[in-house]
Design goal:
Glutaredoxin; 213 residues; single chain; 5-stranded mixed β-sheet; alpha+beta
């Protein structure tokens, strides 16, 4: 296996990860699916909450994605990967943040999840930094976005860490199959195929929506 880290983007290659994408697995292992089932376009978004390029992607495209979801033209399956744990101060921040997202996704509506998702990127720890968010910090952050006391407790307890880890592995495998063995965050799939130009503004999304319009 070949693994490289370049500017917060992680690339892995494994021959066993090649093959066709399983749509059912992509659906089952999303941290949350947002948007109407009748939306003409569905995309899969793969991110890691420790990935600075993912933060940049969210700053550029997040608002446009939300608008497209709200106007009924887009359905998004969010996949939270966890392979930047070793770049965090705690050694497990990516996994803990993914578990927190699972808690919020399971316990709250899409508006709260979207706010929490954005807030985690806004408060993103520095790669190789001296500190990151504790579970209690993320629980308070979830509460500030409107999460219930039950959901906050789920985050504080790390109740969905195992679920988040399993989902990350399954999603990573599907992403590798879609790309012929390469995995990177952020990545967007449409129809099981990688979308080009996602770091060059929002033209990629405009084009997808126009094609499905």
């Amino acid at each position: 296996m070949l693994a490289l880290i370049v500017g917060g983007v992680i690339w892995n290659r494994s021959q066993r990860d090649t093959g066709g994408v399983d749509e059912a697995v992509l659906s089952e292992n999303a941290a949350l699916i947002i948007g109407e089932p009748s939306a003409p376009q569905t995309i899969d978004v793969f991110e890691d909450f420790m990935c600075p390029v993912c933060q940049e992607f969210e700053e550029q495209s997040g608002p446009a994605i939300t608008r497209a979801i709200n106007d009924g033209s887009l359905r998004v399956r969010y996949h939270v990967l966890t392979f930047l744990d070793d770049r965090s101060a705690s050694g497990d921040y990516s996994t803990r943040a993914a578990g927190a997202a699972q808690c919020v996704g399971a316990g709250e509506d899409k508006e709260v999840f979207e706010k929490f998702h954005s807030a985690l990127f806004a408060d993103q720890p520095e790669e190789g930094g001296e500190s990151d968010l504790s579970n209690a910090d993320m629980a308070r952050l979830a509460g500030a976005q409107g999460a219930s006391a039950h959901t906050q407790q789920c985050v504080a307890d790390g109740a969905k860490l195992a679920e988040a880890t399993a989902a990350s592995e399954q999603s990573r495998t599907q992403l590798a199959k879609a790309t012929g063995g390469q995995v990177a965050t952020p990545t967007v799939l449409s129809g099981g195929e990688p979308v080009n130009g996602i770091m060059d503004g929002t033209d990629w999304l405009d084009q997808l929506l126009t094609e499905q319009g």
